[in-house]
Recover the amino acids of this structure.
């Protein structure tokens, strides 16, 4: 009788937790390995450093999400998590509305950085500002105006309003 109870405990109680523990340890090492391979691969490309970090993190987040879903499935926590997932959808929608400008700037920054429309040192005019680009990041572009003022502009507004790119040698429009 005692052997049956111990056997039931091992099958029902202990084994799923042991499998989850092994899965988490394996996943940690596997995801670290994948992350290093991705970083090494991306470092050999011409992709800007900001976009490399975003791509690397996105892959890691997707892999961890898969691991979490496997853990939930293995421990039969699906019914317990349904209300939490429903609530998180509402919270995510509210969060997305709150940061929509930041997201728009980030997406526009991805396009500006990946398309190489303008680079540091180029002379541009956008949103009534004219000067030299001194920095382009994922969310903001910094322009030093002809008067010496540094203007920080959100990439989403630059992308939607457009810009004029001037020749470096003259004030005429470049080809």
């Amino acid at each position: 009788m005692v052997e049956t109870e111990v056997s039931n405990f091992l099958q029902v109680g202990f084994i799923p937790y042991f499998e989850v523990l092994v899965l988490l340890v394996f996943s940690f090492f596997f995801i670290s390995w994948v992350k290093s391979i991705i970083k090494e691969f991306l470092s050999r490309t011409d992709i800007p450093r900001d976009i490399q970090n975003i791509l690397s993190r996105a892959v890691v987040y997707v892999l961890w999400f898969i691991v979490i879903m496997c853990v939930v499935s293995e421990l039969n926590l699906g019914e317990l998590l349904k209300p939490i997932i429903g609530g998180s959808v509402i919270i995510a929608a509210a969060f997305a509305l709150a940061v929509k400008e930041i997201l728009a700037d980030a997406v526009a920054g991805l396009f500006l950085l990946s398309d190489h429309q303008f680079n540091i040192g180029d002379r541009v005019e956008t949103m009534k500002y004219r000067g030299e680009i001194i920095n382009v990041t994922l969310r903001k572009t910094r322009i030093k105006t002809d008067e010496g003022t540094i203007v920080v502009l959100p990439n989403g507004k630059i992308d939607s309003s457009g810009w004029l790119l001037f020749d470096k040698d003259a004030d005429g429009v470049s080809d």
In short: The CA atoms of residues 7 and 13 lie 10 Å apart.
